[in-house]
Amino acid sequence: MTDDLLVRIEGACGVLSLNRPKAIHALNHDMVVAMTEALLAWRDDPAVSAVIIDHSEGRGFCAGGDIAFLRNSALTDEGAGGRKFFFDEYRLNHLIMTYAKPIVAFMDGITMGGGVGLADPARYRVATENTRLAMPETGIGLFPDVGGGWFLSRMKGRLGQYLALTGARMDGADCLWAGSATHYLPAAALADAKARIAADPADIPAILHSLAAVPPAPKIAGHADDIARLFASDRYEDILAALEAEGSEFAAATLTTLHTKSPQTCKVALRQLATSLTLPDFAANMVMEYRIGARVLVRPDFAEGVRAVIVDKDNAPKWNPATPEGVTDDMLDAIFAPLPANEEWSPL
Q1: Rounded-to-integer distance, Cα 282 and Cα 49, Å
Q2: Model pTM?
Q3: Has 137 been annotated as catalytic?
Q4: Upper half-sphere CA count for residue 101 (Cβ side, 13 Å)
């Protein structure tokens, strides 16, 4: 077990509380393993009827995965440690997605990357006025993984493509409107919600409904038509051209954002989401994402993106390739190609 995850049973609920407040509860490998072990132990435990995933103190539910560790792996062990992290993290994502007992994720605060991977597969996803959800991987040269291909591709009106490419943040009201959250509760009501769920896990929908609040108007909804039109293509160059031609304030701001992102990641994300829609189930999606992850982890953009954001903090990454045109179909084919049979991802 690890001090970075608090594991307990309250009433008839298993509770997993992320406990790395200084890192905004970013997931390390020990946390992934401990969560998986607890969920497997509770799966057949008659004393546990439901599971709650939340965080201890601080402003985040979960800020993502341990990207400093992943970068170090890419630079020092040819990505072996990073691939092991992805392999086990994706197994946890799949375990949550297929878990027979209801799982409630409380996304009260920053929910990014790996945090979205914990919340999106849960049956109940609770947002609050503190929620800030994003998949910001294009800014660090990675890709929107942890099931992002599955969930983003299935959002309404090309919203997922917009979120994947721009890394835009959604607040709690946006999350409810977009379907990333199933309920919107005031943060002040969460302790009561958890206590009532622990006492009566069979009544989760009614409990969450009774404590729900009416959220503010979702800001992202005002741009939904623009997003559907401007992000209609699965070809990155087409999206950039559409934004260039549009001339609106929203299009100009979006274009400025995209020009800071890794062209490789943007093209990977568009292919990833398009491919996911052709796949039969979540496990097949995770096989695809592991192939991508195993490769982009050791490509130049990831180490460079993390350097720019968290090592040197100059926010001036030098992407390689530097332009969308430089990211060829052959390059993408190599990133998406099957791995050797003994290296492919598999569920638990």
Answers
A1: 24
A2: 0.97
A3: yes
A4: 21
